[in-house]
Write a structure and sequence with these properties.
Arc Repressor Mutant, subunit A; 14-stranded mixed β-sheet; alpha+beta
């Protein structure tokens, strides 16, 4: 697996070096002695994204630094990064980041770019409007997660005990979900594992400290339902099993090793594509006496447990109030 990623990490690094160049696909094909068509085919196969789409996404991300730190006008920035004209840049920027370059510059948003697109072991990074994290308990095995931008990832794990790959939003711990407005997530997963992975929505609140899970697909449903189920609930016409439990022996949390609660919604009928009405789950939990605090994190997540496998998040559109950020692969 590490050899596999070493080759493609080289391609990704070359893309980063040439973001202000034109003809990157042709240059890469020549460097790696493959045809343009073959390069496009293998990139799409391995990363689940067209190489041209990926390069455009990286150009847009890099252009943020010019918007933040220079007085260049938007036309000059567009041309510098190889866009045919200003409107093409503006349209692509809005589709990728949910706002126009002009509005972004006026709002002075603090967006941190991280050039690393490949995570191994325990690591958390900011990339444009998303937080990405790979967490592994390090008891055994190895993991890796490729960041494709706009909340999309591809991940692999081998002979692990427990690992969690996620991409989502972090908050400043000052507002509850009801204060932020309606929250929903439009997601899509592909996965390949013989044992134990689950896919869905993951996050934390503080005061009280709660780790929460909305599981849309899980290969251990019977274990959850038979041993840990508290109640069932109908949430937007779908059946979920609801339960809570206390953490065991002060497990790691977003606030260090300390006690916390776990809240779970387990979907009765597994699916790998759909829309999760996150706020409705929160309301259901609170009606059952499962109190939530101020939001710290909401993410789309893939979890592996005592297994090997690979998976991807190919669709990740997070709506908070009337603002949607994220992306979907074509």
């Amino acid at each position: 697996m590490r050899e596999f990623y070493a080759l493609y990490e080289g391609i990704l690094k070359d893309i980063e070096k040439g973001l202000k160049n034109t003809g990157q696909i042709e240059a890469l094909a020549k460097k790696y002695s493959i045809s343009r068509t073959h390069l496009q085919r293998v990139f799409k196969h391995e990363f689940g994204q067209n190489i041209g789409t990926y390069i455009r996404s990286r150009k847009l991300a890099a252009s943020i630094e010019d918007l933040k730190n220079t007085d260049l006008n938007i036309l000059d920035i567009a041309l510098e990064y190889g866009f045919d004209h200003e409107q093409s840049y503006i349209r692509s920027f809005k589709n990728e980041l949910g706002t126009t370059p002009g509005s972004f510059r006026k709002s002075n948003k603090n967006v941190t770019l991280n050039p690393s697109r490949l995570l191994n072991n325990n690591k958390r990074v900011d990339l444009n409007c998303f937080k990405y994290e790979l967490w592994q308990d390090n008891q055994t095995g190895n993991t890796s997660m490729l960041l494709k931008g706009a909340g999309l990832v591809k991940c692999k794990w081998n002979n692990i005990n427990y690992t969690n790959f996620r991409a989502g939003k972090h908050f400043d711990e000052t507002k509850t979900y009801s204060q932020l407005g309606p929250i929903s997530i439009d997601y899509g997963f592909n996965y390949n594992s013989k044992y134990n992975p689950w896919r869905g929505v993951y996050g934390w609140t503080v005061d009280p400290l709660v780790e929460f899970f909305i599981v849309e697909s899980c290969d251990q449903n019977n274990y959850f339902i038979n041993n840990l189920s508290k109640k069932t609930a109908d949430i937007n016409g779908e059946k979920y099993y609801i339960y809570e439990r206390n953490s065991i022996d002060n497990q790691p949390s977003v606030k260090g090793n300390m006690p916390f609660k776990e809240y779970w919604s387990i979907r009765a009928d597994k699916r790998s594509r759909g829309i999760v009405p996150v706020s409705e789950h929160f309301k259901t939990w609170e009606k059952m006496g499962m109190k939530l605090g101020k939001l710290f994190e909401i993410s789309v997540a893939i979890v592996g447990y005592q297994s090997s496998g690979d998976a991807e998040i190919y669709r990740n559109l997070i709506t908070i109030g009337d603002i949607t950020t994220g992306s979907k692969d074509s």
